[in-house]
Amino acid sequence: MNVFRLAGDLTHLLSLVVLLLKIVATKSCRGVSAKTQELYAIVFVTRYLDLLFSFVSLYNSVMKVVFLGSAFSIVYFMRYHKVVRHTYDRELDTFRSSFLVAGSMVLALLINSKYTFFEVLWTFSIYLEAVAILPQLVMLQRTGNIDNLTGNYVFLLGMYRGLYILNWIYRYSTERRYWQMIVWVSGIIQTALYADFFYYYLKCWNENRTLVIP
Amino acid sequence: QIRRGAHDEL
Question: Would you state the pLDDT for residue A186?
Answer without folding.
Answer: 98
